[in-house]
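question for whoever is on the cluster today: can someone run the full assembly for these? two chains, 617 residues total. i dont have access anymore since they changed the login thing
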Amino acid sequence: MTDCHKQLLELLDRSGAKLHALLTRLTLHEDVAEELMQELFIKLSDVATTKKISNLDSYAYRTAVNLAFDWRRSNKSRQIGVPLDEVAEPVSSDFPTLDTLIQNEVIQKILTAVGCLNGAAREAFVMRYIQQESYEFIAGQLDKTPHQIRALCSRVTNYLRDTLSSVGEEMCDV
Amino acid sequence: MSKISEEDIRRNLEFLSQLQPSAQSTDRAVQCVRRMLAEYEQPPKTKNANVWSIIMKSPITKLAVAAVVIIACLIGLSFWRTTGSGIALADVLAQIEKVKSVRWQWSYKVTGGDPNTYDYNETRVTWLTSQEYGSKSTWEWLDPNGEWSQYVERYLLPQKKTEIVIYPTEKIYICQELEDADVEQIKEDNIARDPLGILKGILETKYESLSKSTMDGVEVAGFRITDPNWFINLGENQQVDYKIWVDVKTLLPVRFDVLASAEVDEMGDRLTHHVVMHDFQWDVPVDAAEFEPPISDGYTFKVIKLPPSNEETAIQGLKVWVELLDKYPEKISDVTPQLALKSKTPAALRLQEEIKGLTEGETIIKLADFLVPIRGVARFYVLLVHDKKDPAYYGKTVTPKNADKVLMRWKVSDNEYRVIFGDLHAETVSPEKLAELEAALPK
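^ ran it for u. tokens below:
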């Protein structure tokens, strides 16, 4: 086994469960998350054999986010959402299940809108609000200052508010 | 559905963040990857460096963006020539073919990717084309201060067998002589008349009709293409949404709207390209004087004569690539200097040293000379495509050390192919022998 595969196994031990949880949250399908986990590590393996990756955890995280949103973009039919009026209000003390989330149109729309973003803004937002990481941790991962991350997250929140307030507006043509 | 408030967004995000996959699912996912890693030994794989992503990273953006047009035209040739059957769009095509001249605006914006890696770029172009005189385009880009600056004027003049590119800020005037073959190619393929060429291509592909609507007070009918393979290749996992809106009364286009995105690095970061052609003025009166490039005092004049397009030129161009990169470029259509400016071979370092300290204008002239042999090989290949000579190029896997491997080939006759091998010697072979050689190509 090569060094790069050893590094990937260490990454799998260290962060495998976390990456799988991230993929599940972004796709809302366990079976898809399992497939994307494989795809993620195939991509990482391909890259790691040809060049040195300075921060493998950050690289894996970004690649996972891109894979998940690519899947969402090309599998719209699997994103079912019940209109807000018809869905039960989420209660913070309840433990959410995939069934309740996949039916939640607001969450589907939020994910679609976040999928329209690119680069650091999307990564910072997902890390902060979907993975609940600290600003300091995200800053370290994305090579930015905590202040820059706060500003990015704030801009994305404003964008989501504006985008999702426009009822009926088509998001993300491509 | 009801309006979504910021509170709704925050509450639902918190809800989503609490979601945990089942332990069984996580276990399956991790174990599956573990098994795969234990068995998986993937040979080194390089990703296609795509022309547009390289261009967008270029420090010489102005020169590079101008190259986009050339590349887009060259690559576009393969589908512009196609014809096919269609009903409504065929009528539109017939109308465009009657047009003697047209002026329109073209705007281009690229977004996405890592802002630390990719320059965000916005360009707009005014085109004027005439069957009689040729074409003229004026290019402007949005500078970092948010101001539009003119940076290139390009004239394609088939009658004079010349192409002229003017850089007003740098006061540079570059004149390129064209061969008869180039001129014929331009006439035949209507490179300068994008709407016609695009329509011809669309008739060949699968498109859908959109319902009628109104655009700027004009009733229009729409057509849409989403086949990612139809558009110029921008990178991996390409997605394309190409819409055309046609005035139902005149049957002439009023707007082309293209959204295309593709992955530009191994992490799956995407760049989105938005191209719009709009403000068409069909059969606009034109004056010959509009196609006379202005000549002003203080300009530096540069005349470029491309070598004839033939096998010898192609080999010369490939030799230059090897000197610069110590290998062949993955794509033969790559006529930008970026690869050489990043390479560490002695020839590349010499070039980098030579342009160090030059003004932008001096750099443009220097690189224009430098690109001649490279453009020669790219142009030869495009002509082979144009003439349906069944060309193929394998620079992605064949290196200068592969003396017996096919680097490039094209059809000479029904019974013969000409082949340039990895060590740049050339031979004529039978189709059977070629099949044998290509079966032995490195993977």
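summary bc i know u wont read the tokens: Chain A has two domains: 1-79, 85-174. Chain A touches chain B through 66 residues (CB under 8 Å).
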